[in-house]
Write a structure and sequence with these properties.
alpha+beta, 2 domains, seven-stranded mixed beta sheet, four-stranded antiparallel beta sheet, 15 strands, 37% helix
């Protein structure tokens, strides 16, 4: 189903600014955990425990579970993402929901990999968390995020269970920008992306298009950078509230064994986010997080995600796990184990000092035994 290596997603891009450096044709390398992470961090739900309770945890579990249910890695010389037989048995409405879900995940991966966007999240989640409202009849894009070199990106995600029609491609090219400004400035890039399957049993493709002009009724999005960052990381606080958190190296992790997913966050980042959420110390949050990430960036870029998050997925075929040497050659566990060894040996890799009144995440028990996607289940080596 899901081997340890990445699959290649053929991607076409059009009308992007020359300075964006986006190739017209390319292959995006995608791991299972990349898709799981993208769906987790871009979800619409605001993850407000007081409002939704445990339902918010079930909501992201529902979205992530579609990946091992309906996707597989093909056996071609170049691994591709294809749909399972179960996916082909879905009715048209169900196929549409699957395509929509994949469209959201690939929209995030494209933004992060090709446009170097950070803190990419759903507009609805930010708007709901901070009581932003829009006039009746005003449409808006799905996602926004911050370019690492300054400015914002806005994105609209689409998905089709079959081939893209000429009409949809033309509509994407002519689509007007529905968000005029973010924090008073015009977004540098506004694009629409669509996941599609040109052949019924063929691999998944991605098309991304950057339209030119703003619509007459485009909206202004008054984003506070500190609240934006808090909303981005809040889902991790919710996950830790609904599943026992553990310490793994310098990460706090939560393992959802039934889903085969482990997620985590760097301890110093988590401490600062938790302080902002619990003690309302949001002033300077964005700059504090960026400083923490910059301090640890060399190792993050080699092993994990540059926003300090950790995601791992264990969606391999059981027989494949039993193959001799399977786990010795698995890329992610090797990288993580080496990273955690180095983290504990180097003086500059330490959690921020715990202030009075803070939760000390370092006092959590260590992750042992089966950690999906990182430590294999006993008896399957």
């Amino acid at each position: 189903m899901f081997p340890s290596g990445p699959a290649q997603v053929h991607t076409d891009a059009a009308l992007f600014p020359a300075g964006a450096g986006v190739p017209v044709k390319q292959e995006l390398s995608v791991l299972p955990e990349d898709l799981a992470r993208a769906l987790f961090i871009t979800g619409r739900a605001p993850y407000d425990r007081a409002k939704h309770g445990r339902s918010s945890a079930y909501e992201w579990c529902h979205r992530v579970a579609v990946l091992p249910a309906y996707l597989s890695w093909s056996d071609d010389p170049v691994p591709r993402i294809t749909r399972t037989d179960l996916a082909h048995e879905l009715d048209p409405s169900e196929k549409g929901m699957l395509s929509y879900t994949l469209g959201q995940a690939m929209c995030q991966i494209f933004a992060e990999r090709q446009l170097f966007v950070r803190f990419f999240m759903h507009v609805a989640r930010y708007a709901s968390a901070y009581k932003l409202t829009f006039a009746p009849g005003q449409s808006r894009a799905d996602f926004f995020g911050e370019l690492t070199d300054g400015g914002y990106v806005v994105a609209e995600a689409k998905g089709r269970s079959g081939r893209l029609t000429r009409g949809l491609c033309e509509a994407m090219e002519e689509q007007k920008r529905t968000i005029k400004t973010i924090k008073g400035e015009a977004p540098k890039i506004v694009y629409a992306s669509a996941v599609h399957f040109p052949l019924p049993r063929g691999p998944m493709h991605l098309l991304a298009i950057d339209p030119d002009e703003a619509a007459l009724r485009a909206v202004d999005l008054p984003v506070d950078p500190d609240l934006h960052v808090l909303a981005y990381y809040t889902p991790f606080l919710d996950a830790f509230a609904h599943q026992e958190p553990l310490i793994l190296g310098d990460y706090v992790v939560a393992s959802f064994a039934a889903l085969g997913v482990t997620l985590g966050l760097l301890v110093p980042v988590l401490q600062r986010v938790e302080r902002a959420a619990r003690r309302h110390e949001t002033a300077g949050l964005r700059d504090d997080i960026l400083r923490l990430l910059a301090r640890h960036r060399p190792r993050l870029e080699r092993t994990l995600y540059r926003d300090g998050t950790l995601f791992a997925a264990d969606w391999t075929i059981p027989e494949d796990r039993r193959r001799p040497g399977r786990w010795d050659s698995a890329l992610l566990p090797d990288l993580l184990h080496e990273a955690f060894r180095n983290m504990n040996e180097e003086e500059d890799w330490r959690a921020a000092p715990v202030e009075e009144g803070d939760l000390d995440w370092r006092n959590l028990p260590s992750a042992r035994g089966y950690v999906p996607g990182i430590f294999p289940q006993s008896g399957l080596l």
